[in-house]
Design a protein that fits this description.
about 1200 residues, alpha+beta, 6-stranded antiparallel beta sheet
Length: about 1200
C-alpha cells in the first residue's frame, strides 16, 4: 500500500523542530552548567582569596611576635622597654642597641630612633595618599548608615558631645582631612610566594618589589601597627581612686585621714593599688558612683570615701571580669537579662577602645630579666595557721615551679626574737646572695654597680632591706590568735608584742651587718646628780622630820650628799603601729671607774636591768617606737640598779665637783640571757680638770601634790634605797614644763645636774644599725663642760619633749637645736614636738643638706625614723581621733577591718628612709627615691634602681598579679610611634588623679603639729597638676628617648596644684626649700604609691592590620605592582590582642636565685596567646 506523499513534508518539519528543540535544551543546560561552574569557581576563588588575606593578616601578628621575641630574649645584660609601635633594647652601659619596630616599615630593626621636631622619621609626608602602592591608612573609616566607623581611633573623639578623655590631643597629622582627621599611614610590606616580606620602592601607583619573579610572584601585602595595651586604662582593675596616707601633721584633712581610715575591701583607697587608678580619666562624665557600678570587683562602702568610720570590711563583689571594652555595654553582673549599662552611650564605648582595655599585663622581672623579689614577708614553709589565703596567693605569684620543686622569690621568717634565725633560713641566704650578685653587676639600661658605689654599705643596705621586709606585718589580725609573728599584747604581760630582734648577718665578704628590727638602741647615755642632804637647807615638809640613814653620817655645813643615776635614753627608729612592748635586758659594765671627787660611785662594776611588762616596762608598756618615755621606764621594777651610793662632797667656793668618767659597755640582749642584740662602747668623759660640774642643790619646794622629799635622791624618799625607783610621783601625773615643774617631774632644773653623751649628728639610725658601736660614736653634749649650766642633756619622751626633758641653755629660750640652720624649730613646731638634736649642731650633722629625716605623727617629733609600715590604730574613748588625740590612750586595732597588705606595703618605695652611710659613718643620708640631683643617691647607679629588684604582688580582690606579672599597670612610655602627632597620656592622667602631694611650708602655721586646731584649715595636701607634670615626659620623648625603668618616676617632679601656680622649674629650685619641714617619708610617698602602678614593659599588645591578597596580571612585569591594574583579590582588616606569659609550672625553669646566670635564661620560657581578635567589617 502506498502512503500519501502530501504527509511526508509535514513529518520531516516536525522532526526538525524536535531536534532543534532538543539542541536548544541541551545547549541551555550546558550553558547553565558552565555558568554555575564559573560562579562556583569565582565564589571558591573569592573565598580562597579572603582566606588568603586573613592568613596574611595573621602573618603580621606573627611578625610582631617575632620582633618582640628578638628584643626580649637577649639575656641578663640587655634591658628592653616597650611603647606603642616599638620595643627598644639597651646594653649595660645604658646605650641603645636596637629599636624593633612593631609597625610595617622599610627597616624593621634600626640602631637609632629619629624624632625631629616631634615628628618620627617613619612618618610619611602629607602627600602619602598620592602613593597608594606604598602607603595605606590603617585607620581609614568606613561609611555606614549611621555614620563613619573607625577601626582604631575614632576621629570624633574630643569633639562635640563625644568622648573627651583626659590627656588626649591631636596635632598636625600628615594628610588629614575633614573626612579623615586622624590618618595612621604605614608602609605596605609586599609578600612573595616564598614568604619573603619586601618594603617596596617607587611612587604613585607603582611599586618596585625587589626579588619578585615569575616563579616567586607577589601574592599579597600587609600593613600593621601595634598598640601597647599597658598605655591604656584597664577596666577590670581601675575604679575611682581616693587618697589615703597615715597622718603626720595637723590639718583638718589629715585629721580626716586618721579618723576615717580605709576599710578592708575598700580597694579604691588602698595606697598603690590598681583600683586607685581613675576610670573617670576616660569616661569624664561619670561620677564615682557611676564608676563603682561599672567595676566588676570594686564597691563603695567602708569609710564611704573618708566620710564615716568603717565598722567592718566592705562586701566583695563577685562579678565576672570584662573580656573586652565592648562588654561595658552591659551590666557586669551575671544577670541573664543583660541590662544595658546606664550613663554610657554606645558611641562612648566604641570611642573608648583607644583609651581603655580589658587586658593589660606587665612583667614583674627586673632589668636583668630575672625574677623580682616580693617585698611581703611569709612564714617559713607557709606553715598552717601562720599565713592567710592572701599570703598563699602572694607566695604563688612569687614562685616558679610547684610543691617541693618550687623556687620561691620571697623572704621567709620564723623567729621574732632571734637576730640570726631568719637570715639563716637556707632560701633567705640564697636570695640575699642573689641580690648581692645583681648589685655587683652593671645595671642593664643604665650602667653602674651598686657594689662600687657603696662599698661595704652595699651589704649593709641589703641587710636593712631584708630586715625591713621581715619586720613588716607584725601582728596580722586576719590570723587566729597565736598565728601572728609577734606575741599578743593582751592579756598581759604581752612582752614581745611588736618587738623584733634586729637581723645580724656577716656576709660572704666578711662584713658584719645589722638591720633595725624593732628594738631599742640608745640615743644618749645620761648621768644625773641629785642632792640628798644639805644642812644649809632648813625647810622640811610640814609635820615631818628629816630622814636619816643609819649607815651615813649627815653632812655638816659646807657639805652635801650627792647621788647619781645612769639613764639609758632608749630609741627605736621603727616608729609606728602596731604598739611595741619590749622584752630585753640591759647590762652596763665599767661602773667602778666612775667617781665623784675621787670617791667611787658604784659598789659593783656592772648591773642588769630587765625590761618587759612584768619586770619593768618602757612607757608603762605603751610605745610605738621613737623615743621611750624615760621618766617612766622602770615602771614595775622592784629596784633600779643604775643608782649610785650617796657621796659626801665638800662645796668649794666655785660650787663645782670633779667627776671621773670611764669606758662603759652597754649590752642589750633579747630577754634575760638571750642573744646579744647590740653592744655599745661609750666613753663617759670626766669633767673638765680646769672646772667641773655644778654641785646639785637640795630641792626645797613642792611641785604639786608630793612633798619635796620625793626629789631627795633616786631611791624613793631620800636615804631609803630599797624602795622602787621614783622617776615620777605617778605615771599619770604631768611633769609640767621647764618653767613650771609639776609632781610628775623626775628631774628639776636649777636643782639637779644632768650630763649626757650622744651622737653629735643626732641620726640614731647609724647607732641602731651596728652590732658593735665604737666609742667614737657617742660624744659630749655641747654644754657638757659648761660650769654654769646644770642641764646638758636631751631627755626625750615618746609623746612630749619640751615638758619632760632636760634643757640646754638654748632650749630655755625655745631656740633649741634645729634640723635647719635658717629655720628655728620654734617657728614651725609646738615645743612638745621639737626634734632631738643638740643646739649648735653643724649643718653637716643635720639633715639640712639632704632632707633625709622622717616626719613623725602629729604628736611625735620628727626624727631619724625608717618609715615603718603602718598597721593601723584606733583611739580609745569619746570623740578622740586616731594618731591625734590622747596618744597615751591610743590602741592597736582589735579587728581586721583596717588590716590588709597594701596598706602596709604599697611598694618597695617604703625602703626610702633606710640609711646608706652606716659603714661610711655618713649621717642623714638614706636611699633616694625622689628628684634631688645633688644627693649622693643620685650618682650612678641611681638609688631608685634598687626598686626594680622588688615588687609587691596585688592579690585582692582577685589575683590581679599572676606569676611574675601584674594587670592594670600604666606604661610611662605613652608616646605613639610613628604617629607622634597623636598624644594619649590618658593612662598617666588616670594614675595621678587620685594622688596628693604633701608639702608643709616653713612658717609658724605648723607649730600646730601638737594639735592647735586654729591651723586646721591650712592646706598641706595638694592635687597634682598633670599637665605641668607631663611636660617632663614630653621633653624626654621629643629627644628620642624613653623611660627604661618604672623607677625613673623618682627622677620626675610631681607638680602640685597651688596658688600661685607651681611649675617644674620652681620644683627644681625653690619649692622644696620653701617646704623644707616636709619629711622624706612624705616627700617620697607619692613615688611609693605611683611606682607599683607603673611599668616600662608590656606583656600585652594589640596588632592592628590590613592585609590584601594580590594577583599579577598575566604578562605584566613580575617585579612591579601597578595599583588599579594588577588585581586585589581579597582584603582582611582587623586586630588581634596578644599576650606573652611564662608557664611558671615548667619544671625546666632553673633556680636563678642560686645562679642568676643559669641557662636557659628566663626570657626563653615565654609563650604567646591570643586573648582577643576582631575583624573590622562594619
Amino acid at each position: 500500500m502506498k502512503t500519501n506523499s502530501l504527509l511526508r513534508p509535514r513529518r520531516s518539519g516536525f522532526a526538525l523542530l524536535l531536534v532543534l528543540g532538543m539542541l536548544v535544551l541541551i545547549v541551555g543546560l550546558s550553558v547553565g552548567f558552565l555558568m554555575k561552574s564559573t560562579s562556583a569557581l569565582q565564589s571558591a576563588s573569592g573565598y580562597g582569596a579572603s582566606v588568603s588575606a586573613r592568613n596574611l593578616a595573621y602573618t603580621a601578628v606573627g611578625l610582631v611576635q617575632g620582633q618582640i621575641n628578638l628584643a626580649t630574649g637577649q639575656g641578663t645584660s640587655v634591658a628592653w622597654v616597650s611603647q606603642p609601635g616599638m620595643v627598644r633594647t639597651y646594653d649595660n652601659a645604658g646605650t641603645l642597641r636596637n629599636a624593633y619596630k612593631l609597625y610595617s616599615a622599610a627597616n624593621m630593626i634600626d640602631t637609632k630612633v629619629s624624632i625631629t621636631g616631634g615628628v618620627s622619621a617613619d612618618a610619611p609626608a602629607a602627600s602619602w595618599k598620592d602613593n597608594p602602592a606604598l602607603w595605606t591608612d590603617l585607620n581609614a573609616p568606613v561609611q555606614t548608615r549611621t555614620g563613619k566607623v573607625y577601626p582604631i581611633l575614632d576621629g570624633n573623639v574630643g569633639t562635640g558631645g563625644n568622648l573627651k578623655p583626659e590627656g588626649y590631643s591631636l596635632g598636625a597629622a600628615p594628610g588629614a582631612s575633614s573626612w579623615q582627621p586622624v590618618p595612621m599611614p604605614v608602609r605596605w610590606l609586599y609578600v612573595l610566594q616564598d614568604g619573603t616580606f619586601v618594603a617596596a620602592a617607587g611612587s604613585g601607583n607603582e611599586a618596585t618589589v625587589a626579588g619578585a619573579t615569575a616563579a616567586n610572584p607577589v601574592v599579597g601585602r600587609i600593613a600593621f601597627w601595634t598598640d601597647d595595651e599597658t598605655c591604656k586604662v584597664n577596666i577590670n582593675t581601675a575604679s575611682e581612686g581616693m587618697f589615703w596616707n597615715t597622718p603626720h601633721f595637723y590639718s583638718n584633712f589629715q585629721r580626716y585621714l586618721g579618723q576615717y581610715q580605709p576599710a578592708q575591701g575598700e580597694y579604691q583607697r588602698y595606697p598603690g593599688h590598681p583600683a586607685t587608678t581613675c576610670l573617670s580619666s576616660v569616661f569624664t562624665t561619670l561620677s564615682a558612683d557611676n564608676i563603682y557600678a561599672l567595676t566588676p570587683r570594686v564597691s563603695p562602702g567602708g569609710s564611704s570615701g573618708a566620710t564615716t568610720v568603717a565598722t567592718g570590711p566592705v562586701a566583695k563583689k563577685s562579678q565576672r571580669l570584662y573580656a573586652s571594652v565592648d562588654e561595658l555595654a552591659f551590666d557586669p553582673s551575671f544577670d541573664s537579662s543583660r541590662t544595658a549599662t546606664p550613663k554610657l552611650k554606645a558611641s562612648d564605648i566604641a570611642q573608648a577602645h583607644f583609651f581603655a582595655t580589658a587586658s593589660s599585663r606587665a612583667p614583674e622581672l627586673n632589668l636583668f630579666n630575672l625574677p623580682r623579689i616580693a617585698c611581703w614577708p611569709l612564714y617559713a614553709g607557709l606553715a598552717t595557721g601562720k599565713v592567710t589565703s592572701l599570703d598563699k596567693l602572694i607566695a604563688f605569684c612569687s614562685s616558679t615551679g610547684n610543691g617541693a620543686a618550687s623556687y620561691p622569690y620571697y623572704f621567709q621568717r620564723q623567729r621574732y626574737d632571734s637576730p640570726t634565725n631568719d637570715i639563716g633560713l637556707a632560701r633567705n641566704g640564697t636570695l640575699y646572695n642573689y641580690l648581692r650578685a645583681l648589685t655587683s653587676q652593671a645595671v642593664p639600661g643604665f650602667g653602674g654597680l651598686f657594689s662600687a658605689k657603696y662599698g661595704a654599705d652595699r651589704d649593709q643596705i641589703l641587710t636593712e632591706i631584708f630586715d625591713y621586709i621581715r619586720t613588716t606585718n607584725l601582728y596580722d589580725l586576719n590570723l587566729a590568735t597565736g598565728g601572728q609573728f609577734t606575741p599578743a599584747s593582751t592579756p598581759l604581760p604581752g612582752s614581745g608584742h611588736g618587738w623584733v630582734a634586729p637581723t645580724q648577718y656577716t656576709t660572704a665578704g666578711g662584713i658584719p651587718t645589722q638591720g633595725f628590727g624593732r628594738f631599742y638602741t640608745l640615743s644618749a647615755l645620761t648621768i644625773g646628780f641629785a642632792c640628798s642632804n644639805d644642812p644649809s637647807v632648813t625647810t622640811v615638809p610640814a609635820n615631818t622630820t628629816p630622814y636619816a640613814s643609819p649607815a651615813l653620817t649627815p653632812a655638816v655645813a659646807g657639805e652635801r650628799y650627792v647621788q647619781a643615776i645612769l639613764i639609758p635614753n632608749f630609741f627605736s627608729p621603727m616608729l609606728g603601729f602596731t604598739s611595741m612592748i619590749p622584752d630585753m635586758q640591759v647590762n652596763i659594765k665599767g661602773l667602778l671607774a666612775l667617781r665623784l671627787n675621787g670617791q667611787q660611785l658604784f659598789t659593783a662594776d656592772s648591773y642588769d636591768q630587765r625590761y618587759n611588762v612584768t619586770t619593768a616596762s618602757v612607757n608603762n608598756g605603751l610605745t610605738v617606737g621613737g623615743h621611750a618615755t624615760w621618766r617612766n621606764f622602770d615602771n614595775g621594777a622592784p629596784l633600779y640598779p643604775f643608782v649610785s651610793s650617796h657621796i659626801k662632797v665638800t662645796v668649794p667656793a666655785n660650787g663645782l665637783m670633779a667627776f671621773t668618767g670611764g669606758q662603759l659597755t652597754v649590752t642589750i640582749t633579747e630577754g634575760a640571757g638571750g642573744p646579744v642584740l647590740q653592744t655599745l662602747n661609750i666613753n663617759l668623759p670626766s669633767s673638765d680638770p680646769a672646772g667641773g660640774f655644778p654641785i646639785p642643790k637640795l630641792v626645797d619646794q613642792k611641785f604639786g601634790a608630793p612633798d619635796m622629799s620625793y626629789w631627795w635622791g633616786f631611791g624613793g624618799k631620800a636615804w631609803n634605797e630599797n624602795k622602787r625607783l621614783l622617776l615620777s610621783y605617778g605615771s599619770g601625773y604631768s611633769p609640767g614644763n621647764y618653767a613650771t615643774p609639776s609632781c610628775g617631774s623626775p628631774l628639776v632644773d636649777n636643782y639637779d645636774v644632768v650630763r649626757s653623751v650622744q651622737p653629735a649628728h643626732g641620726d640614731f639610725r647609724l647607732v641602731a644599725a651596728q652590732q658593735n658601736v665604737p666609742t667614737t660614736v657617742f660624744a659630749k653634749h655641747p654644754y657638757y663642760d659648761t660650769t654654769t649650766t646644770k642641764w646638758a642633756a636631751n631627755l626625750f619622751e615618746a609623746y612630749s619633749t619640751y615638758s619632760s626633758q632636760g634643757f640646754d641653755p638654748g632650749r630655755t629660750q625655745n631656740s633649741w637645736g634645729s634640723y635647719f640652720s635658717t629655720i628655728p624649730a620654734s617657728s614651725y613646731f609646738w615645743a612638745n614636738v621639737s626634734p632631738d638634736i643638740p643646739a649648735g649642731a653643724t649643718v653637716a650633722n643635720t639633715p639640712e643638706s639632704t632632707g633625709d629625716y622622717d616626719s613623725g605623727f602629729p604628736y611625735i617629733p620628727d626624727g631619724p625614723y625608717i618609715n615603718k609600715p603602718d598597721e593601723g590604730t584606733k583611739a580609745l574613748g569619746g570623740a578622740n581621733v586616731p594618731y591625734f588625740d590622747t596618744p597615751w590612750n591610743a590602741s592597736d586595732p582589735v579587728t581586721s577591718t583596717f588590716a590588709f597588705p597594701n596598706r602596709q606595703m604599697p611598694s618597695p618605695g617604703m625602703f626610702g628612709s633606710l640609711p646608706t652611710g652606716v659603714k661610711a659613718n655618713v649621717p642623714w643620708r638614706t636611699l633616694l627615691f625622689r628628684p634631688q640631683p645633688t644627693h649622693f643617691g643620685a650618682t650612678s647607679p641611681t638609688d631608685h634602681l634598687l626598686l626594680d629588684l622588688f615588687w609587691m604582688p596585688v592579690v585582692d580582690p582577685y589575683a590581679i598579679s599572676d606569676r611574675f606579672s601584674t594587670a592594670g599597670k600604666i606604661n610611662m612610655n605613652y608616646q605613639i610611634l610613628p604617629f607622634t602627632y597623636i598624644e594619649r597620656s590618658t593612662g598617666i592622667n588616670a594614675l595621678l588623679k587620685s594622688e596628693l602631694v604633701t608639702a608643709v611650708p616653713n612658717t609658724g602655721l605648723y607649730k600646730a603639729k601638737g594639735g592647735n586646731s586654729t591651723m586646721g584649715a591650712q592646706t598641706i595636701d595638694y592635687p597634682i597638676d598633670a599637665t605641668e607634670t607631663l611636660t617632663q615626659f614630653k621633653a624626654k620623648f621629643q629627644g628620642g628617648d624613653i623611660f627604661r625603668s618604672a623607677s625613673e618616676i623618682c627622677d620626675l617632679h610631681i607638680v602640685p596644684v597651688t596658688i600661685p601656680a607651681t611649675t617644674v622649674n620652681l620644683m627644681k629650685t625653690t619649692f622644696w626649700t620653701a617646704n623644707q619641714i616636709t619629711g622624706e617619708n612624705l616627700r617620697e610617698r607619692i613615688y611609693t604609691t605611683l611606682y607599683p602602678r607603673l611599668t616600662t614593659k608590656s606583656n600585652t599588645y594589640t596588632v592592628h592590620f590590613r592585609a590584601q591578597s594580590l594577583k599579577k596580571n598575566v604578562g605584566s612585569l613580575p617585579g612591579t605592582w601597578r595599583e588599579g591594574v594588577d588585581q586585589i583579590t581579597g582584603e582582611y582588616r582587623g586586630s588581634a590582642t596578644i599576650e606573652r606569659f611564662i608557664d611558671a609550672n615548667n619544671a625546666s625553669i632553673p633556680d636563678y636565685g642560686t645562679n642568676p646566670n643559669a641557662t636557659p635564661s628566663l626570657d626563653t620560657f615565654y609563650r604567646w596567646r591570643i586573648v582577643h581578635d576582631h575583624q573590622f567589617a562594619p
